Amino acid sequence: MNATNTLMPPVALAAASAAPVLPESAPFTSAQRAWLNGFFAGMVSGGGGAGVATPGIPASDVAAPTAPAAEEDFPWHDPALSLPDRLDLAKDKPIERKLMAAMAQLDCGACGYVCQSYAEHIADGSEKNLTLCMPGGKDTTAKLKELVQLGIKTGGASKPATPTGNGQSAIGNPAYSRSNPFPARVVMSKPLNGAGSDKDTRHVVFDLKGSGLTYKPGDALGVWPENCPDLATEIMELIGASGAEDVPGPDGEPMSLFEALVRRYVITTPTDDLISLLGHDPVDGLGVVDLLKKAPAERRPTPDKLVAALSPINPRLYSISSSLRACPDQVHLTVGVVRYRNGAGTACKGVCSTFLAERVRPGQKVRIFFHASPKFGLPVSGDTPVIMVGPGTGIAPFRAFLQERAAAGSTGDNWLFFGDQRSSCDFLYEKELTDLQRAGTLTKLSTAFSRDQEKKIYVQTRMIEHQADLWRWLEKGAHFYVCGDAKRMAKDVDAALKQIVREQGGMSEEKAEAYVADLTKSGRYQRDVY
Ligand SMILES: Cc1cc2nc3c(=O)[nH]c(=O)nc-3n(C[C@H](O)[C@H](O)[C@H](O)COP(=O)(O)OP(=O)(O)OC[C@H]3O[C@@H](n4cnc5c(N)ncnc54)[C@H](O)[C@@H]3O)c2cc1C
Ligand SMILES: NC(=O)c1ccc[n+]([C@@H]2O[C@H](COP(=O)([O-])OP(=O)(O)OC[C@H]3O[C@@H](n4cnc5c(N)ncnc54)[C@H](OP(=O)(O)O)[C@@H]3O)[C@@H](O)[C@H]2O)c1
Question: Is 268 in the pocket of ligand 1 (CB under 6 A)?
């Protein structure tokens, strides 16, 4: 452990990194404010701060580290609340927060943003499409329309000056964005699982040369996928089309039916419009092809009618698994490939994960953009210890953190909890991690292979086993990070963390809740879950 890491409670730690902080009244969204505060904090901290040159990376290209920005409270960010209740909780907030409250609060990424950034992009005028929140459906779209009209009338939804808040990372090239993605060359897409695995996880590398784009560890990458051409062909056959027919794209521009089905529209999950066009009752879990097969021949639509009933394709977000300091001109992803059978027994492929795993080839160009994560990033000081919990693809940002800390020569301790199914074939990045351990960058590595024995062992099992040590790290000011599955893992890890605080800190349930809430508020408990 580093001798400079003396016992430091959360509040003292926040105060220790004193830097200019923009007032709430400054004309920026909270994301922009958080980024700017992080930038100032990086400048004040000096070592490893904004613009510090690293071999191979010009000073102007180095992203500022994220300051542990105070967590803004989003009481409506709970998918269990009804739409009216969520809106009520945001009623005194600025337009971008009201818009956020109208979203389904799942941060599912189906829109190519998370709820907060989708709302902010609508508010700053950079996103015009109000129909992207799939889980929120028509109710969300209707409310967004109403709020935008109201915002424009009252001057609330205006486009701010710089920074654009368009998802560019800290010092990125503003020429590229979600709506103007960079065509990045694929360097590789290689399997990370070994023989005998039930999973298919890919290491995907893109070349950024010539883009001027930068990112920081903790940011995400947006990828515009293409559909499987076999699925497009099956749909064309079902409606008796050749694919050469002219149809309008989502923005009204003419294109061939084949191009529209491969690149521009969702052809996996049906919209309500398609379901009613085909005369079906809403059926959960069936795909576009299943519904077309079930429809009587006379109800099968013409190419024009078909595309009019489809929704535009959206990008997917992936946590970045590389650091620019260690991998200049590259961005790496760790992608879990989605394949399953739906209710009709049809084999289904996740659009973007199978695009990256099966359909792209080295040298091919893929449209990408950066999505900054102002609330997920390394501590400003390289001396601060970090605890990272990242099972499965959740390892992604922590590979980036470790690369960054090794390349920057940071002296803070690093503890990784990694878990997956089997040690023999699912130990993602095993060699890299054991090398980092040998080199002393990875101070502690705790693994949990769930299917190596009869009884499941998960990352939280290991946390509890090492609870005295984990508590010592927290009391020394460690930042605690979680990435991966939101539905089960992140909840169970949160419960384990609270249990450790209760048992090791000798606290009541209430006090432990307050301790963990304090960690969150001071930016020391950060999650990137999906
Ligand atoms: C901030 C953020 C970071 C992320 N980081 C990563 C990352 O680092 N690595 C990663 O792999 N993913 C990550 N994701 C998830 C990623 O964005 C995509 O959602 C994922 O790759 C699936 O996209 P797809 O296009 O392949 O699948 P889609 O075509 O979108 O299909 C996924 C959908 O298929 C359905 N489905 C899936 N499995 C089943 C099943 N067994 N039975 C029935 N239906 C099913 C569900 O409706 C699911 O929503 C992240 C998401 C967010 C929001
Ligand atoms: N939003 C999306 O569209 C989307 C897309 C892709 C993935 N995801 C989510 O991302 C997750 C990550 O997928 P992944 O393939 O990388 O890994 P994963 O499925 O999360 O599995 C990684 C390890 O976590 C274990 N695990 C299961 N339940 C757990 C729990 N409650 N607590 C702790 N560990 C638990 C698994 O064990 P067992 O399997 O043996 O139980 C496995 O050993 C998926 O589970 C999925 O929910 C979401």
Answer: yes
Q: Which residue has the higher pLDDT, 200 or 164?
A: 200
With pLDDT > 70 as the criterion, what percentage of the chain qualifies? Answer: 82
Token look-up 């792209």 returns 360
Question: Would the pLDDT of 223 be above 60?
Answer: yes
Chain-wide mean pLDDT for the chain? 85
Spell out the long-range contacts of 501-506 with Cβ–Cβ below 8 A and sequence spacing 24 or more. Answer: 501/471, 501/474, 503/467, 504/467, 504/468, 504/470, 504/471, 505/471
Kind plus residue range of the DSSP H or E element containing 348: strand 347-349
Helix and strand numbers (H, E) in the chain are 18, 15
The tens digit of pLDDT for each residue in 306-356 reads 999 999 999 999 999 999 999 999 999 999 999 999 989 999 999 999 999
| Angle between helices 115-123 and 137-153 in degrees, nearest 10 | 40
Cβ(350) to ligand 1 under 6 A?
Answer: yes
Mutate to test the pocket of ligand 2, among 417, 485, 491, 494 (most ligand atoms within 8 A of CB): 485
| Cα(340) to centroid(ligand 1), Å | 12
In terms of C-beta density within 10 A (0-12 exposed, 13-18 middle, 19 or more buried), how is residue 60 classed?
A: exposed
Ligand 2 pocket, residue 338 CB under 6 Å: yes
pLDDT of 166 higher than 80: no
